[in-house]
Amino acid sequence: MHSPLLALALASYLLATAAFVGHIFTESQSLRRSAHGLLSLALALHAAAMATRVLLLGYEAITPFQEELSFIACVMVGLYLLTALRANLTVVGALVTPLAFLFSLSAYLFEAGTPETPHRMASIWLPAHFVPAFVGYAVFAVAFCFSLTYLVQEKQLKSKRKSTMFRRFPSLETLDNLNYRFVSWGFGLFTIGLITGSLLAREVWGALWSWEPVQVWSAITWLLYAALLHARTVGWRGRKAATLTIVSFVVLVASFVGVSLVFPGKHGGSLG
Amino acid sequence: MQREVLIVGVNHHRATVDVREQVAFTNGAFEDALRELVTLPPIDEGAILETCNRVEVVAATGDGDAAVEALSHFLVARNNGGQRELDQHLSVYRGRDGVRHLFRVAASLDSMVVGEPQILGQLKDFYGRAASVGSAGTILHRCFHRSFSVAKRVRTETGIATRAVSVSSAAVELACKIFDRLEDKTAMLIGAGTMSELAARHLLAQGVRSVIVANRTFDRAVELARDLQGTPIPFDDLSRYLHMADVVIGSTSADSYVLSSAQMVDVLRQRKYRPLFLIDLGVPRNFDPHINDIDNVYLYDIDDLAGVADTNRDERQREAAKAETIIEAEVDGFCRWLSNLDAVPTIVALRDRLESIRRGELEKTLASLQELPPRDREALEAMTQAIVNKILHTPITLLKQQDRALETFYIAAARQLFGLEEPDDS
């Protein structure tokens, strides 16, 4: 059954995207306010849709792939809205919002009736695993948007060819600082997710590590982000850091989508 | 008798600053001038705007031709009687043009530097003075208040005010797109030229924390550093200080590069690759253009900055077109309100309004009293008619005032009290 709340949330995401794009091209402040209003509304509807689902089906409802995307979209939008209170980040909003829309759309289109609960995973480690891991993914997703914005703005400044949107871009330093902060937080959460995931694996599968595709790819992603944070300490700022953030996120998404769909493995068809 | 908003005065379009000065009202005489203004027979309401770009009288009148005459005399009287001289410099805006002119002034479209933000504050101040003297009345109250909201719309709906159109403000704009905040940044001047001093002052005004000045003639460095409350350094020590600066402005007349690419790679390492903004104002150029290829370094020369300023000027032109559209719509709204501000149509509208209420209520009542004999129906008809006429008597008498300012006031009030306004006028 498709959730009408989720459908409304999707519509609001779409309208918010249009308002963001409109603001970036026309500089209209009322469009900027509408974009943020619509995005907050979308978030509220989306969170309500998820809460209803969890209330109806129990917290296992969050396990299937689609629900995970939905959860990540909510956290992303929440993080963006909080950050946008302190800095003018509408360009980033114009990236985060359609991304959240796509995530939620896939949740909507593939919404399963009753999830097939991987009962063997019913453990207290389950939420302790997926909450930090998924919040971590959402943080990385926003960091990815900061990095994309950074690269575009850096290109405009270097080439001295400004687009009409130039003025709505945040400063390079703002983006770089936010990127660093988000990657650090994401890394911490991701690490916690990996540790609790291993403990969960020991409880369910009997071993902390079993060369399972999701485990392997998560470890690779973890190493990439670790390398990124280390590189910062030796002066990999700005463009290089942004590029590596983008690469790491692409690997993360590839492992999330690819592994879940191509090699379902023991994770029960999901990265959860 | 059609009311109109009229503006007569001298402004930067047709009068040079020495003409504008002669007409200017001295501070003490300003309030007296306002009082004198409304004693002129054709002038119902008046206000005076006086900025460095203009001395203009804004008036509401029922007789435009006479008012233009009277206001010209009024201004000439300031100008030590040089009637002929002043006439050719006077700008007159009547009717729609008058309203439009006030809106454009408020929105800073008529300023010498389009989009400058001070004008709105000044306008509010001059309106406040006219309101406190009592020379502004119903029409000007509304016209000024509309102009303030037009200014706000233009500011929020277009980007007219956010364009840096000089080379040094373009430099500041770029600095703000590179750095998160300027408050913890240091600027360095290499060469103490006028251009670099101007750019440094702009940066300081935007919050840059400190300035280092290097110049071949050390005395000049000391002098400029004192002006800017910065630190002078000997030119030969330049490389020892370079890593401290986040913004470096070069304006020496050296004929070879003062900063080389290899040197900057080194400086960047010392800075732990924190971003660096180089502004090359020198001709020939002071900084090796290849420096721009280094990561986290942004090098702009004088042509690049001029290019930024030019693009901004073009964009501002486009934004101005958007602003004019907003203003045109607002002028329409105001003029519609103004054209309804006449006794005869107001009285007609007022009668129609009460008559339709009377009719509606009467029909409702008669519908539930089907068996009422015709005689009683006529009595009811006559009674309701009488009530309406009694209610209308005083308002209509008051609407036909001799005093035009008072009449305007009553008309505007009646239109509002009895809901005769068009929806988008309120």
How would you summarize what this structure contains?
Chain A is mostly helical. Chain A contains eight helices and no strands. In chain B, helix 7 (138-157) packs antiparallel against helix 13 (302-339) and helix 8 (167-178) crosses helix 13.
Keywords:
heterodimer, A: 272 residues, mainly alpha, 2 domains, 8 helices, 76% helix, flat, B: 426 residues, alpha/beta, Beta Polymerase, domain 2, Rossmann fold, 3 domains, 6-stranded parallel beta sheet, 4-stranded antiparallel beta sheet, 16 helices, 10 strands
Low-pLDDT runs of chain A: none
Which structural class do you get from the secondary structure elements of chain B?
A: alpha/beta
Integer average pLDDT of chain B: 87
CATH architecture of the largest domain in chain B: 2-Layer Sandwich
Q: Considering residues with a beta carbon less than 8 A from a beta carbon on another chain, report the largest interface and each chain's count.
A: A-B, 25 and 28 residues
C-alpha end-to-end distance of chain B: 23 Å
In the CATH scheme, what's the topology name of the largest domain in chain B?
Beta Polymerase, domain 2
Estimate percent helicity of chain B: 55-70%
In round numbers, the mean pLDDT of chain A is 83
| Number of DSSP strand runs of chain A | 0
Quick one: overall form of chain A? Answer: flat
Oligomer: heterodimer
CATH superfamily of the largest domain in chain B: Glutamyl-tRNA reductase, N-terminal domain
Reading off the top of the CATH hierarchy, the class of the largest domain in chain B is best stated as: Alpha Beta
Going across the major beta sheet of chain B, what is the strand order?
Answer: 7-6-5-8-9-10
Explain what this protein looks like in three dimensions.
The complex is a heterodimer of chains A (272) and B (426). In chain A, 76% of the residues lie in helices and 0% in strands. Chain A is an all-alpha fold. Chain B has 426 residues and is an alpha/beta fold. Chain B contains 16 helices and ten strands. In chain B, strands 7-6-5-8-9-10 form a six-stranded parallel beta sheet. A four-stranded antiparallel beta sheet of chain B has the order 2-3-1-4, with helices on both faces. The longest helix of chain B is centred in the C-terminal third of the chain and has 38 residues, at 302-339. The two termini of chain B are 23 Å apart. The model of chain B has no long low-confidence stretch (mean pLDDT 87). At the A-B interface, α5, α6 and α8 of A face α8 and α13 of B.
